[in-house]
Amino acid sequence: MRKVKDIFLNCLTYLCSSFGFIILIILIAFIFKNGIGLLDFDLLKDDYFETVYNVKIDDPENFRLGGFQDPKLADGYFSQKWGIVLVDDENNSHENIVVIAYISEQSPFNSVTNVSDESRVKLKAGYEISKISLTNAMNDYISALAKNGAEEMVTKLEEATIITDMIVTTGGGGIRGSLLTTFYLIGLTLMISLPLGISGAIYLNEYSKKNRFIGIIRAMIDMTSGIPSIIFGLVGAIIFIPAMNSLISSTGGSIASGALTLSIILLPIIIKTTEESLKVIPDSYRMASLALGASRTQTTFKVVLPNAFSGILTATLLSIGRIIGESAALIYAVGTAIKDTVVINEKSTSLAVHIWSLMSGENPNYELACAISIIILIVVALISLVIKIISKRASKMEVN
Length: 400
What we know:
The chain is of the alpha+beta class and 400 residues long. Helices cover 56% and strands 14% of the residues.
């Protein structure tokens, strides 16, 4: 009976301990299944919003028509008359689109006229063509739509002599702006929080005395690390946004106010991690340095801190992971406006807030949200791996 009871308890232990792992695997599988199809370099470098041009080519006498050499691109349809290769593709909404794959240097498509302001527009490979309206030698009107495919569009181009109207878009659906915003937040936040956090840890471990006041400070640091981040977002909205509005002429939330908000979130992490790394430095190092005539400050900055570098680096990496994954505080402190032009004194979105924006509308974009989630998971996994390597090396150094 006792053996049966032990087996039951062991099985229950394994079941409970593996439950979280199973949920994690299911979550990762769902994210990769829905987002891996969008994950490519174009997603990282493209703007989120597309630019639409309504253009025309109504003066063919100034251009060369016909006689272009076929570049023989795979799955491409080549117009010898206009020197352009079109291919079929799908956008992020799984709609059929026609994309420019190649334009000859002498092609009329290299310089078209914008119908709205008569300016010149240079089309490039990667642009999408939604519709072309053209006329042939008999002045018959012809229309070619992207939904009918690239082959039909090229066939009608071969018949045309003048392109009277063409709708071209620069794509869209990329996360370049949110990626840049995340990098800006990482850089600004670390510039603010690391000096403050490391200095605080040095004071608490190297200079402070054990009294009630220092005990209260340590208790406040521990309590601050447990405050929900959305409360920090309210602090950012109430304090940092008005401050930045007066200092850098921002209007509402900005990357600067978001960096300040993230800084106070990260301070407990940096202080505690750095302080723990300072505590493991043997006192014999300090005593030896002081015995050789070094001052306390010289000992701290030339002996203690270099030996605590692995712990400080760990604190930095943990901070970067927290910045990348933070969303609740940034919704209040920065805003949720997805932007392709990133400016420090304007609203923008980080990668995590971008996911929130995609999922908060009436038509959630699960595919793009999952693709961004994969990027965040990969970065966080790499950071965790680096932290483990650093910790392992630090442990070996301590043994030696």
